[in-house]
Amino acid sequence: MNILNEISLKLQQGNAKAVKELVQQAIDEGFAAEEILEKGLMAGIDVIGEKFKNNEIYVPEVLIAARAMNAGTALLKPLLVSGNVKAKGKVVLGTVKGDLHDIGKNLVRMMMEGKGLEVIDLGIDVPCEKFIETAIQEKAQIIACSALLTTTMNEMKLIVEAAKEAGIRDQVKIMIGGAPVTDQFRKNIGADLYAPDAASAAEVAVQACAN
Ligand code: B1M
Q1: Integer Cα distance of 133 and 28 in angstroms
Q2: What is the model's pLDDT at position 86?
Q3: For residue 178, how far is its CA from the centre of ligand 1 (angstroms)?
Q4: How far is the CA of 48 from the centre of ligand 1 (A)?
Q5: Among 7, 50, 136, 190, which is least packed by CB within 10 angstroms?
Q6: Residue with the nearest Cα to atom 20 of ligand 1?
Q7: What does the pLDDT look like over 123-181, one tens digit per residue?
């Protein structure tokens, strides 16, 4: 079996130790970090998501798979984040209130840092006020919000409104992303930037900070 398929399979089995070993082996064999991420780790977690949706597995299994995913991404981090890059802007990043999903957000952080942006990561379940307060204190150019649930993505609209109320709407760009989020949703809520994945999130953020 191809090593990337093996990574995907071990991740689905929640075997963090094997995932770590296989990811290291794939790195040593010369696979690109992006390929290991996409075709190994992400392929595996997508199968988990599908099974979860169909009630074939439950939260504990998903959590164990998420732990294995994190073990794999930790090894990829130094390869995805290149050093020696000068900071080009400041981003306040977090997963919105009510939402505990952080694997995608962590990838966004990795990629943004890799492009030289300074990222203040507020973590998960971040209330709207915290995003605004931190953006003001830190004079950030971008508030970047991640949401994985259709029930929590509406928090993003509240963040746009809160930025208006706080009088910082013209000083900070609001960027949104996460599996259920689309560019149409961005337009609907009046946010500025949308990116479908972590790599483009970093590119879009760098561009926005340069403007
Ligand atoms: Co949850 N969960 N989960 N879950 N979970 C999903 C999201 C779900 C789609 C599964 C399913 O039904 N198929 C479903 C959501 C349905 C919906 O709303 N439409 C779901 C559900 C229902 C739930 C619970 C409600 C289940 C329950 O308790 N009954 C519950 C909610 C808890 C809460 O948040 N309040 C729950 C819990 C969990 C765990 C805690 C067990 C665990 C999270 C662990 C963790 O994150 N530390 C978990 C997981 C792992 C998943 C799946 C399987 C995987 C998510 C993931 O990490 N994907 C997920 C199914 C799936 O997505 N296939 C599912 C990999 C990650 C790299 O992708 O986060 O999409 P993603 O990030 C992408 C892009 O979206 C983008 O970049 C990344 C790729 O480069 N991106 C951005 C992300 N943020 C961005 C921000 C940007 C730009 C791009 O700009 C700022």
Answers
A1: 44
A2: 65
A3: 8
A4: 11
A5: 50
A6: 149
A7: 999 999 999 999 999 999 999 999 999 999 999 999 999 999 999 999 999 999 999 99
